[in-house]
């Protein structure tokens, strides 16, 4: 299995070669040269497997340069009940991603029972163990540079803290994360964790990461690695729970299932697209956005029009406050028939601050073949959806999951199960839950008082040179 760039100008690479990097040298994103296929019989054999066994069945088809026994050991170490322990009452932690039935044909898929209470732990914990394995084997070290709007940063730091040969430099928008998110990240005192609070919004942070990664000399000299959502290792880890969720709500593989995905950078739903391309019987992939609706606009009109940092709203589902969806290029590459030159031309428009329109060449008409539909949600919708979920189903959901549920309900079809991906637990966004329900959500006891712990972070401006300098001084 080799990996190719969406822009068609970089040599094909193996999994281990792309694991520690971010963008391909030509500025594109990596995808497998072809998608492995799971047949009806394969799916039958996978039905009923434990999460770890299921993950191995899928990942072993995508990773062929780590010996199978080692890959199995890494997966077994990652997907353990004691790592994904923050279950709801009545859930079995051994399921890793248990489902909650809301009503007939409507489910939540719990992806947020890991250490930082968001779905990003699902992939990041695997990445931490894969990085450690590959670096140790090759006798190397890495300096991870990432950008977070809240959940990526904490998930990365909890996955990498204390790991030998790894330092983490994490950029976050200063004062724009929830108090709980801020406390989770900034209270880590590990020597290998550096929190940088940037005077700007998330897109500024993401642009700094891109600028540093595009400086090939700096990247090589300072061994810059990536864990933001463009990292291919994260995407493949996320493919697994679409299979797990599918098996949980069906009894045979003739059935189709739809998934509703609270979306920002398009990483989570991109994994759904890949699961579908690998043969999972998915009906609709419902892309749910908040007020930052660049993706909803594309799936409704065929025009992709990133808004720029100045026009990014600060919302109550902050992990989706994104105006430019970094993984979207992966889907568009497939949509335009895997034409690297065409994808490169489209993104040269985006990189120069313009937009593109896929109507004229007929590409947009093909979007429906991939199952994508979309919708958006605003603050009032979120509040109402959180209240309705509490009243109707006795389930407390967080603001991002509420965006997903709101849009899911607009796209339900009779007899097709709709699975809403729960991307965070309500405890992470207390203020919004208090606003919606009038009381604080339940919080895992182990996390009580986290806001009062001492915090370690450095405030910096949107200044690529200064941030490079900070990395150099601390490595
Ligand atoms: C990151 C995140 C999202 C958005 O996921 P993408 O992969 O960026 O589309 C949604 N909800 C929560 C809680 C998140 O942390």
From TrEMBL:
Gene: thrC_3
Protein name in UniProt: threonine synthase
Cofactor(s), names only, from the UniProt record: pyridoxal 5'-phosphate
Entry's family note: Belongs to the threonine synthase family.
GO molecular function terms listed in the Swiss-Prot or TrEMBL record: pyridoxal phosphate binding; threonine synthase activity
PANTHER family: THREONINE SYNTHASE FAMILY MEMBER (PTHR42690), THREONINE SYNTHASE-LIKE 2 (PTHR42690:SF1)
Biological process according to GO: threonine biosynthetic process
Domain Threonine synthase N-terminal: 2-79
Assigned EC number: 4.2.3.1
Keywords on record: Amino-acid biosynthesis, Lyase, Pyridoxal phosphate, Threonine biosynthesis
Organism this protein belongs to: mine drainage metagenome
Known pathway: Amino-acid biosynthesis; L-threonine biosynthesis; L-threonine from L-aspartate: step 5/5
Domain Tryptophan synthase beta chain-like PALP: 102-340
Keyword Amino-acid biosynthesis: yes
Enzyme class: lyase
């Amino acid at each position: 299995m080799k990996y190719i760039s969406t822009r068609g100008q970089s040599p094909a690479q193996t999994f281990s070669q792309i694991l520690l990097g971010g963008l391909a040298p030509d500025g594109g994103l990596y995808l497998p040269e072809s998608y492995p296929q799971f047949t009806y019989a394969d799916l039958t054999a996978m039905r009923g497997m434990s999460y770890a066994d299921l993950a191995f069945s899928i990942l072993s088809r995508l990773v062929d340069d780590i010996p199978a026994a080692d890959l199995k050991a890494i997966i077994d170490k990652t997907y353990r009940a004691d790592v994904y322990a923050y279950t709801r009452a009545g859930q079995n932690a051994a399921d890793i991603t248990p489902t909650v039935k809301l009503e007939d044909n409507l489910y939540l898929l719990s992806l947020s029972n890991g250490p930082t209470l968001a779905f990003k732990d699902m992939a990041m914990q695997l990445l931490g163990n894969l990085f450690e394995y590959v670096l140790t084997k090759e006798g190397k070290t890495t300096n991870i540079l990432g950008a977070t709007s809240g959940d990526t940063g904490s998930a990365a730091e909890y996955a990498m803290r204390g790991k030998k040969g790894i330092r983490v430099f994490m950029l976050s928008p200063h004062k724009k994360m929830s108090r709980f998110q801020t406390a989770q990240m900034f209270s880590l005192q590990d020597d290998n964790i550096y929190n940088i609070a940037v005077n700007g919004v998330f897109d500024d942070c993401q642009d700094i990461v891109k600028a540093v990664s595009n400086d090939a000399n700096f990247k090589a000299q300072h061994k810059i690695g990536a864990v933001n959502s463009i990292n291919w290792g994260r995407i493949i880890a996320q493919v697994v729970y679409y299979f797990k969720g599918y098996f949980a709500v069906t009894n045979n593989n003739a059935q189709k299932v739809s998934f509703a995905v609270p979306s920002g950078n398009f990483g989570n739903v991109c994994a759904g697209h890949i699961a579908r391309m690998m043969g999972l019987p998915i009906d609709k992939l419902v892309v749910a956005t908040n007020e930052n609706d660049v993706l909803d606009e594309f799936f409704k009109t065929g025009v992709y029009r990133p808004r720029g940092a100045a026009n990014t709203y600060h919302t109550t589902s902050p992990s989706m406050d994104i105006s430019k969806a970094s993984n979207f290029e992966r889907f568009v590459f497939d949509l335009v028939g895997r034409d690297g030159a065409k994808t490169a031309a489209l993104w040269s428009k985006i990189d120069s601050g313009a937009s593109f329109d896929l109507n004229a060449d007929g590409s947009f008409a093909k979007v429906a073949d991939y199952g994508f539909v979309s919708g958006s949600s605003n603050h009032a919708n979120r509040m109402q959806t959180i209240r309705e979920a509490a009243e109707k189903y006795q389930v407390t959901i967080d603001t991002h999951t509420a965006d997903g549920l709101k849009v899911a309900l607009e796209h339900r079809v009779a007899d097709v199960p709709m699975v809403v991906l729960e991307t965070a637990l309500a405890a992470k966004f207390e203020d919004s839950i208090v606003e919606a329900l009038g009381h604080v959500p339940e919080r895992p006891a182990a996390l009580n008082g986290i806001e009062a712990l001492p915090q370690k972070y450095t405030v910096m401006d949107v200044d690529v040179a200064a941030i490079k300098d900070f990395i150099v001084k601390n490595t």
